[in-house]
Write a structure and sequence with these properties.
The structure is a homodimer of 263-residue chains. Chain A is of the alpha+beta class. Helices cover 34% and strands 29% of the residues of chain A. Chains A and B meet through helix 3, helix 4, helix 5 and strand 11 of A and helix 3, helix 4, helix 5 and strand 11 of B.
Chain lengths: 263, 263
């Protein structure tokens, strides 16, 4: 089978498929919330719930059904077709700790990459009834409304950061957290997916995420670039048994200011 | 008129009145959101919106109607009857920056104090459809469900902090922020009212709020103590033309651990 170049028609249909997947994820999470969610510890000390695994299994099943030659990379199960051109990258529940604790800021991350470049992304927040999504060449949207990140602004920067624990996991970059919190003191610290969605809507000006896994960043690059903002990978390293990435993204002038604080 | 000692019957009726006020606040904010909210800068650089003033005016009008001899202290207007035994303390929109930016974590803070001691408190989040409330001797509730903060837990602490900007405003306590973020690295930074509500539900174990005004903390003490947690004022100072307070609250063992990091 010849590789299908993702033209506009194909991207539109994949975009619809990704939104269907987000609907499925929301249905599974909604059922889990209604039944009551209990967390269990993974070996690395982080939480997992049956909902994480149920969402990822449901999405994998749907992808295999509709796109049998596509690859799938997710947080909870081994990769499927890792050599395929099209790779769905999933974090079924980003913020499992929040899901278990009843904090509504958790969300699902769904990305599709083609030959290593992001093609589309969805961030969906079941408990906030909030979704942002984007596809290459089609734009970035909050529900049905097109999003445009402003070119520049002279208000004090609104900043979202990873917790200091992220900066010091795998490799100790705590000094960068300290420098950022001193120079950009009006910061918030949310989970990844919420910070990413707020950057896409222009609600925060810049986000600095540190020491993430690929699935944490599966959707954000296409969201930010399709909204007219900038996405920069500032670290791309091997540590803790895998690839870890650090990224700065949001409004262009704000990204430049934050990056100037990072060597 | 002799002072009315707040017995159970009176507290129950004031509690209902406070919930009515929260309904009114939610209605005004909902109408503002539907019409589109625009922010303007105050002299101190913070945001205010017509919604902040509209909510406070509506609540003041209702309080004057129902409790003409009660005092009212709010963020946006001068105090009313500052000598009265009963004082309603209002922050109509905590998180105006979030309201303007479309981040759903803003909320209304409503407290009633009797002779300087908190009698009841409500935190209401219109965009999250989430409310916690408490009254002296009656318990703390999320909507209708009674809340109980656990006695202790050996999981890694879930911590919420004020942004570094709070620690350095009025007086420079940045060193305390740095110490807390190093020793308790799994932190989040939300707005006051959300952090307070999450402490009451047990979703975070401990909150450290720094350099707040009285209205920021109007509801939280009664919420936390009625839920079985601990509330400690760790700084009570005069600065920036008024009284500023710093407080640590949540699960008892977690409060002790956080306080040990503060001199």
């Amino acid at each position: 089978v010849a590789d299908t170049v993702p033209d506009g028609t194909l991207i539109a249909s994949l975009h619809e498929a990704a939104l269907d997947l987000a609907d499925e994820a929301r249905a599974v999470i909604g059922a889990a919330l209604a039944a009551g969610v209990r967390g269990e510890r993974k070996e690395d000390g982080t939480f997992v719930t049956p909902a994480d695994r149920d969402v990822e299994q449901r999405l994998r099943a749907r992808i295999v059904e509709r796109f049998p030659d596509h690859g799938v990379l997710g947080e909870e199960f081994p990769p499927l077709h890792p050599e395929a051109d099209y790779q769905w990258i999933l974090d079924p529940v980003d913020g499992t700790e929040e899901l278990v604790a009843g904090i509504p800021t958790f969300g699902s991350i769904i990305g599709l990459h083609h030959r290593g470049r992001p093609l589309l992304g969805v961030l969906d927040f079941p408990a906030l009834d909030f979704r942002v999504h984007a596809a290459r060449g089609r734009g970035c949207f909050r529900d049905g409304a097109r999003l445009h990140i402003a070119a520049a602004d002279d208000r004090p920067l609104r900043v979202a950061l990873s917790a200091r624990a992220n900066f010091t996991r795998y490799l100790d970059d705590g000094v960068i957290f300290d420098r950022l919190t001193r120079a950009l003191p009006n910061h918030r610290i949310y989970r990844s997916c919420l910070a990413q969605a707020l950057a896409a809507t222009g609600s925060v000006d810049v986000v600095v995420e540190w020491h993430d896994r690929l699935w944490d960043l599966a959707a954000v690059e296409i969201l930010i670039t399709e909204a007219g903002g900038e996405y920069r990978v500032v670290r791309d390293q091997q540590a803790g048994g895998g690839r870890i990435l650090s990224a700065v993204f949001g409004r262009r002038d704000a990204v430049a200011r934050a990056c100037a604080l990072i060597d």
